[in-house]
Specification:
The chain has 241 residues and is α/β, with parallel strands linked by helices. The protein has helices spanning 21-32, 44-56, 71-84, 107-135, 159-179, 197-202, 212-224, and strands at residues 12-16, 36-40, 60-63, 87-92, 138-143, 184-191, 234-237. Bound molecules: NADP nicotinamide-adenine-dinucleotide phosphate.
Length: 241
Amino acid sequence: MAEREHWLAGRVAVVTGASRGIGRATAEAIAREGAHAVVAARGVEALDATVAAIRDSGGRATAVPTDVSDASAVKELFSIANDIGPPAALVCAAATLERESFDEISLASWEYTMSVNLTGVFNCCRAAFTMMRNAGGGRIVNIASLSGVYATEKFPGLAAYNTTKYGVIGLTEAIAVEGRSCGVTAVSLSPGAVDTDMLRRANPSLRAGVTAAQVAAMIVTLLDSPFSIASGANVPLFSNV
Ligand SMILES: NC(=O)c1ccc[n+]([C@@H]2O[C@H](COP(=O)([O-])OP(=O)(O)OC[C@H]3O[C@@H](n4cnc5c(N)ncnc54)[C@H](OP(=O)(O)O)[C@@H]3O)[C@@H](O)[C@H]2O)c1
């Protein structure tokens, strides 16, 4: 039986946080399925390395250095993506994690975490939403965290980070409601401990249960599925390898 083509094949997908970790693994996995990966993060060299790895494997990718907390930079990111083709998929993986005990969090640090992890997702989703609606639809996957899921184990020093992840899950649900009438779907994915730089910063003693490549494979599977009836859902990843 002939293999069915992946939904991503021939489409344009924007991936934030694609200079390393889950975002980079996702960009690579998305490009392997035939999408043109438009990759965003701040680190120019690391982003170029992502693009080089994708192109070396025969895929298509474009780097657009972007700070997701900067709305005008995000507008430029989506304008460049749209010149390649209307963005059909968006994966928001960019995030920061500052570990500080609750009574020591400065307002500046709190606002910085909010601006990247929550406003950054808002900036990207809003820009993508308009283009997706105008093109007749699109699929969004936002990376939240088990840190943003009620009644999971929480760790000290992560009040700001955890709060943003609760926000990402709520924002995704809101986008799904408004996307229903125009073919835009949105889900959030909430991993536990994934083997990346961020995990080592968050809690060096935590053992990773999954790899970035496994999370990327899950994202690619979600993007290929007709998940409109599950739009708005948060998918928690509890499993250990
Ligand atoms: N690792 C885990 O255990 C785990 C668990 C649950 C959820 N998550 C979530 O999974 C996602 C990916 O995390 P990861 O573990 O892969 O982290 P990571 O290795 O630290 O990568 C974070 C990515 O975000 C980018 N980034 C940070 N600030 C940015 C900004 N202002 N604008 C644009 N890009 C920015 C970084 O690139 P630059 O520094 O070059 O900008 C990098 O590409 C995050 O949303 C994280 O919260 C991770």
